[in-house]
Amino acid sequence: MARILIVDDDAAFREALLETVTSLGHDAEEVSRGAQALSLMKQDHFDAVLLDQRMPGVDGLGVLKALRDQGGAAPPIIMLTAYAGADNTIEAMRLGAFDHLAKPISRDAVQEVLTRALRSPQPSTQSAQHLPVSAGLAGFVGDSPAMREVHKRIGLAAASTMPVLVLGETGTGKEMVARALHRHSDRAAQPFIAVNCSAIPSELLESELFGHVRGAFTGATGDRPGCFRAADGGVLLLDEIGDMALETQAKMLRVLQEGEVTPVGATQPVRVDVRVVAATHKDLPAAVRAGQFREDLLWRLDVLSIHMPPLRERTADILPLARYFLERAAGSGQPKALSHEAEQALLAHRWPGNVRELRNGMERCQALSPHPVIAAEDLQLNRSGPGPETDTAGPLPPWLGGTLPEAVSRLERVMIQRALDEARGNRAEAARLLGIHRQLLYRKLAAYGME
Predict the structure, then answer these.
(1) Which residues share a beta bridge with 193?
(2) pLDDT at 83
(3) DSSP class of residue 315?
(4) Which of 65, 70, 194, 266 has the smallest C-beta neighbourhood within 10 Å, fewest atoms?
C-alpha cells in the first residue's frame, strides 16, 4: 500500500479521486491548495502526488518549481488539468512532472499512472533544470492524445542537452517541434538556426554547415563561419538529414562526438556548443541497411526521439487546426466559418500532405471563397489529383509535352519566375520560397538565361 497525496481545489473532484485511490488499495490524503501540499510534503512522506494544475495561490507549476528549488528527492508528481494545452504540458514535464493527464480521468487511467509512478526508480524533480519560462507555442494547435504525447516528449527533451531526432511524414510540423524545444530550453535566448539538408547541393553543404576560409575553393573570397558557429550556444536544426551525403555524415559524426568543427580549407578545429536537432521523413534504419546512412551517426543522433503523427492519426485536431489557419489567414479581418458539410469533408479526407496541406487549403478558402461560410465544394480536396485507383486517362497539358528534361525545364522556369515575382526580385527570398539554396538558384537563372 502506497501513500498518495491529492491536491485539487475542486472539492467534488477531489473526493471522487480520493475514493478511487483508496479503492485501489492505497492510503490517500487530500488538500485543496498548493501551499498546503508543500507544507505537508515537508512534514510527511508520500509515494506519489496527484496535483491539479490550476488552483488559487500557488498553482501546480508553482508547486513543481518550489520542489525543484528545495532540491533533494521528491515523489513522482502527476499533473492533472482540465485545460490541456501544448504550453502547460511541456512546461510541467520540463519542470519534472512524472506525467500530465487531462481531466476527467478514469479509474483505469488512475490505476495505470500510479502503477508506473510507484515503480519509477527516480525522483521526478531531481533532474529538473532551472530553465526560463517559455513564450507561447504559436501555431502548435492540437490536444489529441497523439499530440499530448508529443508535448510530453518535448518537455522531457527540453530539460536535456542531448541530440534529438524528430521523425514524421512531410508536412507534419517537424520544424515546429524543433522550435518548441528551443523555446522551452535554457538556450531560448540563444540562436536557432535551421538548415534543409535536401535543399543544398552536397558539394555546398559542408561549407554551409562548417564554414570555410578564404581561398578554400573557387569563389571563396572571404571567411564564412557556417551554421554550426552561427548557432553557437543555441540550437541547430538539420532538417531532412536522411538526404545528407555519406562523406558529410562522417564529418557530422565527428562534430557531435568532439564538439568542434573544422572549416573547409582550415587546419585548426573550432570549438562549438550547439544542441543538434535532426529531422527526417525517411526510415533511417532502412537507409542504414541500404548503405545510405551511417549506423554510428544514427545512434549518435537518436538519443531522444520524437515522432510527429500524421494528421490522419489525429483527427481530433483537424477542425481546431482548420479554424486556426482561417483566423491566421484573415489577419485583422473576419475569418470565414466552416459549414457542417465542410467539417465532415475535412474529417473524411486522408491528408497526404498533412498539416501543410490543411493550412494551404484553409488559406485558399479564406482568400477565394465568395461566401462567409465555406461549403464542402469550396475545399477542393481532390484538386491534388486522382488517387491510385482512379482512371488517369485524358489529354496532357501542353507544358508536359516532349521529353522529361524539357518538361522539367519548363516547370522550373515557371516556378522560378513566380517565386521571383512574389519576392519582388529578391533572389535570396525567392530561393527560400522555392526551398533551394540560393547558389542553386543562381546557377539555374544562368542556365535558363533569366539573369
Answers:
(1) 236
(2) 78
(3) G
(4) 70
Q: How many CB atoms are closer than 10 A to CB 227?
A: 22
In this model, does residue 324 exceed pLDDT 50?
yes
Decide if 176 contacts 139 (C-beta within 8 A): yes
Burial zone of 282 (CB within 10 Å; 0-12 exposed, 13-18 middle, 19+ buried): middle
Q: Name the band, by pLDDT with cuts 50, 70 and 90, for residue 215.
A: low
Q: State the Cα–Cα distance between residues 42 and 66, nearest whole angstrom.
A: 11
Peptide bond preceding 104 in cis form (omega within 30 of 0):
yes
Longest dimension (CA), the chain: 83
Separation CA 414–CA 409 (nearest Å): 9
Q: What pLDDT band is residue 20 in, cutting at 50, 70 and 90?
A: very high
The Cα–Cα gap between 361 and 115 comes to 44
Q: How many residues does the chain have?
A: 451
Over the Cα atoms of the chain, what is R_g? Answer: 26
What are the helix (H) ranges across 216-262?
A: 226-230, 246-258
Q: List the domains of the chain with CATH numbers.
A: 3-118 (3.40.50.2300), 160-307 (3.40.50.300), 313-379 (1.10.8.60), 398-447 (1.10.10)
Distance CA 174, CA 308 (A): 7
Q: What residues form DSSP beta bridges with 31?
A: 7
Taking the complete model, does pTM exceed 0.85, yes or no? no
Q: Which residues make Cβ contacts (< 8 Å) with residue 52, sequence separation at least 6?
A: 7, 8, 9, 10, 13, 59, 60, 80, 81
Q: From CA 46, how far away is CA 49, in angstroms rounded?
A: 7
Beta bridge partners of 78: 50, 99
> 40: how many CB neighbours lie within 10 A of its CB?
15
